[in-house]
TrEMBL record:
Protein name stated in the entry: SDR family oxidoreductase
Listed PROSITE patterns: ADH_SHORT
Family as reported in the entry's similarity comment: Belongs to the short-chain dehydrogenases/reductases (SDR) family.
Source organism per UniProt: Trinickia fusca
MF terms (GO), sorted A to Z: oxidoreductase activity, acting on the CH-OH group of donors, NAD or NADP as acceptor
Length: 256
């Protein structure tokens, strides 16, 4: 029987690579995101790459809005008796999505910037997880969060790293609560990952060179690096791994 896997942020970057990972292992993948056109492209590409896998299912929702998350939950209940893996990959830095001028109005801008990052990176994962947790297969279910190296050392803006860091105690609490049901809960904390919307063309060549120099292996991460780690955490081989934050950053968090 195919694993049923829900991937938020599944249309691009790490989420898309993760969806492809599970489709490549004949999983039934549900990709969730805010942009229907991006999800449609992702589903089409997954179908071309893995024509023998169950057709990926797109679901458009803003995961910061409870009513839309409830709609997703109800749809999944109608389609599946249970699901096996939940990957919370949706997120991003609002200053990468909006100009700094959008938050330039003093303390009101500070409050909005911090709130927007919390909603995008923390609340989206919390609402989706709380909505779907009772549908996870037990034993054997897996919940995986995508955190960031910024949760350990900051991001230069405060709000993004803090939003990602708040996922860590939530991960620990869930792991403790769900452990008796045989469900594991972990997070992956990537460093610099190329070929994602998060970085895109945002870095200058000097900045990129600095990122590469931080890694002990001298290279950037790829979405597949993160997807492979997520896939391992979702496998039977990792059944005794829970309440962990796995850093996948070439050792960059330790510095050189």
């Amino acid at each position: 029987m195919s694993q049923v896997v829900v991937v938020s942020g599944g249309g691009t970057g790490i989420g898309f690579a993760t969806a492809k990972y599970f489709a490549g292992r004949n999983g039934q993948v549900v990709v969730v995101g805010r942009r229907s056109n991006i999800l449609a492209q992702a589903v089409e590409e997954i179908g071309r790459a893995f024509p023998s896998a169950p057709a990926a299912i797109p679901f458009t929702a803003d995961l910061t809005l409870p009513d839309q998350v409830e709609g997703l939950r109800d749809t999944l209940k109608e389609k599946f008796d249970a699901f096996d893996v939940l990957v919370n990959a949706a997120g991003g830095h609002v200053l990468r999505q909006h100009p700094a001028s959008a938050y330039a109005d003093g303390l009101a801008g500070v409050a909005r910037r911090w709130t927007d990052n919390f909603r995008l990176n923390t609340l989206s994962a919390v609402l989706l997880t709380e909505a779907l947790v009772d549908q996870l297969r037990a034993p054997g279910g897996r919940i995986i969060f995508v955190s960031s190296i910024a949760a350990y050392r900051g991001s230069g803006q405060g709000c993004y790293g803090a939003a990602k860091a708040s996922l860590h105690p939530y991960c620990y609490d869930l792991a403790k609560a769900l452990g008796p049901r045989g469900i594991t809960v972990n997070a992956v904390a990537p460093g610099y990952v190329e070929d994602t919307e998060f970085f895109g063309a945002a870095l200058s060549e000097t900045q990129r060179a600095g990122k590469l120099a931080e890694a002990m292996n001298g290279r950037a991460g790829t979405p597949d690096d993160i997807a492979n780690t997520i896939g391992w955490l979702a496998s039977p081989d990792a059944c005794h791994v829970t309440a962990q934050i796995l850093q996948v950053n070439g050792g960059a968090e330790r510095g050189r």
